[in-house]
Amino acid sequence: MELSINGQVYTVAGEPDRILLWVLRDELGLTGTKFGCGIGMCGSCTVLVDGQPTRSCITPVSAVAGKPFSRWKALRKPVRTVR
What we know:
Layout: E1 2-5, E2 8-11, H1 20-27, E3 46-49, E4 52-55, E5 68-71, H2 72-75
Parallel strand pairs: 1-5
Antiparallel strand pairs: 1-2, 3-4, 3-5
């Protein structure tokens, strides 16, 4: 199964019902997406799938296969200090 994350394509194997958060963190090493409550309430695991906020702690990886999505960390703009 292929995941398009922040414009980069990753191939993941295994069960399609695995939770997206754990695929991102454990299999792909993308640890910017955090675990919070585990029930989709706190929002710390949120990713944008087709522009819509999605809680990765309750979303199976099969639900985002083939859809472009972004992690919050990738959306941040660098802070520039003016002196």
